[in-house]
User: What shape does this take?
Amino acid sequence: MNKLTILEEVVLFLVNRYNGERTIQGITYLLKGKQSAQIIQDSHFYQVTNFFGLYQFLTQQDMQDLVKGLKEKGYLEKIEGNNIYRISHRGSNYLQNVKCEFLNFQYINGLRFASVQKIFWKRLSLFFQTIANINQNIKYFRAVQQENDVQDWVKNELLSAKGSKKDLVIHFHTELEHILQQLQFDEASIIVKRLSGANTYGMTLEQIASEENKSEELIYIQSINAMHHLLTILTEQIAKYPFLSRFLKGSISSNITNTSIETKRLLEAGKSIKEIAAIRHLKISTIEDHIVECVLSDELISIDQFISKEEYSKIKGKIEELQTRKLKDIKESLLNEVTYFQIRITLARMGDLKWN
Assistant: This one.
């Protein structure tokens, strides 16, 4: 059985996980990291949060070509509905008998870090370059990051730093060296090779792949895994890295949309769904989307005002019996005695479930 590319394996895995209940477009939006309530909710319901935003450069045409190729190779079959596929017997055999490459990268956590990693890397790479040039008394250099907000952030950090220039350099390098030592050698190596110094520029992923005689696709995934590993350590051990933790300030996790955060604030202020909809000039269904997001992102939020314990127990039992997240099937199986919102709230409270 021929080995598929990493992206082909990812798509095959996701089509299998969605089990004909979501379109290829939905998978594309997941991989691109689209900030929508539905995509974020589905990433939880189908246990695929790690893949969120993993391929932000992916286009709909790229995906259509890839799916067409998998279908022609006999790994996918098209089923009823628009742009909906399921894996074939051959596709199922592949997932069962071939170890997918992406399974080797245990630190990838797209929903948590997809948006954070971008701003963190831009700040880190420019700060590193700036410190390297300052250390060599070089005042003028071409910045590796051209965005004004990134450059302003680095300038503000340098201007507000206490102590001497030497102290700043030592503090920064000490923390960076320490956290890189917590990574695997190949992870740390990719990060270091991409950094620019004084009169030197970091390597591209293509250059690293050529040097290491690996595919650019593999180096790309390794770089994401390395960055997410570093961010995991940094967010869980902030006290150990007070300087580097400042690089996370103001960055926003993909775990919940900004509009849902505002709805959560109003909920905590005691407002009802109808009141929030009126205040925000939004549809009730949109506010319900926000609430489901909030429940997914915060297990301490009470759902008692949205569903009774009896209704929750009934829906939960039916979900476990049917082994599906298809709202219509669950609702009809319960003789339409519950609402779609109550089903989604139940799914959200049940969390990232284990499915057969």
Q: What stands out?
A: The radius of gyration is 23 Å.
